[in-house]
Amino acid sequence: WYQRRVRVLLMGLKNALKLASENNIDTLTIPLFLAHELDPTMDHGWCVRRAEVVLKCVKGFMIEVGSTGTITSRTFQFIMPKKIPERTFQAIRMLIPSIFRVPCPMVLDQSSRKKTLTIQELYIHDSTT
After folding, report:
1. pLDDT band at residue 51, thresholds of 50, 70 and 90?
2. What mean pLDDT is reported for the chain?
3. Which one of 46, 58, 74, 94 is separated from 122 by 20 to 30 angstroms, measured CA to CA?
4. What is the pLDDT of residues 60-77, one digit of tens each?
């Protein structure tokens, strides 16, 4: 039942991305776990797997839309629950350059974490490190 539920959630995400694209919405905020709050069943492994699936779904959508020849700028903001453990936050942080193949180094520390975290903010180099 879990896999079926994930498929339904991802289909909903793909539909939301498609509707946003069709209606010229260029900024979209997505809960990275497709949930706004952590519950006890959302352990480290669950959070990392869910974030990876959501990021790959968004990447797939970007590739699909890009292959149509229509080039438009889109901003995706990924949000996470504020009280996410540091270990989980760091693991998810490391997923982004591997999934999106970022050409520049990414430096992010706990002190710069906000409630809303955009991909652009992840690429800001912290001169204190």
Report:
1. very high
2. 77
3. 46
4. 888 887 776 665 677 888
- Of residues 64 and 122, which shows the higher confidence score? 64
| Amino acid identity at 68 | T
Q: Are strands 27-31 and 116-118 parallel, antiparallel or unpaired?
A: unpaired
Task: For 50, list phi and psi in degrees, rounded to 5.
Answer: -65, -45
Task: Count the residues in the chain.
Answer: 129
Task: Report, in angstroms and rounded to the nearest whole number, the Rg of the chain calculated over CA atoms.
Answer: 15
Q: Positive or negative, the Cα torsion across 18, 55, 118, 96?
A: negative
Contact 55, 79 (CB under 8 A): no
Token pair of 23 as six digits: 């209606």
Q: How far apart are CA 89 and CA 109, in angstroms?
A: 10
Nearest to 76 by CA among 90, 89, 62: 62
In 3D space, the residue among 88, 97, 92, 128 whose CA is nearest the CA of residue 111 turns out to be 128
